[in-house]
Design brief:
Number of helices: 11
Strand content: under 5%
Strand order of the largest sheet: 1-2
CATH superfamily: Hypothetical protein af1432
Radius of gyration: 18 Å
CATH topology: Hypothetical protein af1432
Number of domains: 1
Order of helices and strands: HEEHHHHHHHHHH
Distance between the termini: 63 Å
Shape: globular
Structural class: mainly alpha
Number of strands: 2
Largest sheet: 2 strands, antiparallel
Length: 193
């Protein structure tokens, strides 16, 4: 029977539920708690629907949404790492978990690994726009929370500029807006010197 529920299906769904337990440094918009990686991935996927008018017509939105939803599944095994702190083992830890996922759940795991590799390589328009929105969302959350994550981690404005400068080539108007917001945040004392 095509729609027969298999134990492996239930096990996969329970495995993916673990993404809800991976807490990020970013706070949710009202500042009441840290967001988890599942919420971030959901928000990122919705960005492609909400901001479709920003995208070049060549972007395959369905493909980008799948990538947005799967790009952080690797954090189930590797955890979340602050974007501003270099961690040389991060990519290896993420790949190791995705290899394990592929072994346990061949079809889904292979798809997740393929999309993760595409995102990491940054060679397709979809992967580049996923990265733009992936960086935009925590930036917006910092603005909503008076730079709380930046202040707690003692992040400088120069670090935030460097972290987002790749956006300039893909979305120059957005990048100019980000720079303006960084200047305003710096004037409010939200960054480390």
């Amino acid at each position: 029977m095509k729609n027969h529920i298999r134990q492996s299906d239930i096990t996969l769904l329970n495995e993916l539920d673990k993404l809800k337990t991976i807490y990020r440094k970013s706070y949710v918009g009202d500042g009441s708690r840290h967001e988890n990686s599942a919420e971030h991935s959901w928000h990122l996927a919705l960005s492609f629907m909400a901001l479709k008018h920003w995208l070049p017509v060549q972007v395959d939105i369905d493909h980008a949404i799948q990538m947005a939803l799967l790009h952080d599944v690797c954090e189930i095994g590797a955890g979340d790492v602050c974007a501003y702190n270099a961690n040389p083992s991060k990519a290896n830890d993420e790949a190791a978990y995705l290899d394990q996922l592929r072994t346990r759940f061949p079809g889904f795991g292979e798809h997740a690994l393929t999309l993760w590799r595409e995102y990491e390589a940054q060679e397709t328009l979809e992967s580049q726009w996923v990265k733009v929105f992936d960086k935009l969302l925590p930036f917006l959350l910092n603005l909503a929370n008076e730079g709380r994550t930046w202040r707690e981690q003692r992040i400088s404005s120069e670090q935030v500029i460097r972290h987002n400068e790749f956006i300039h080539h893909l979305a120059p108007e957005l990048y100019e807006w980000i720079l303006m917001e960084i200047d305003q945040a710096a004037a409010k004392g939200w960054f480390s010197s």
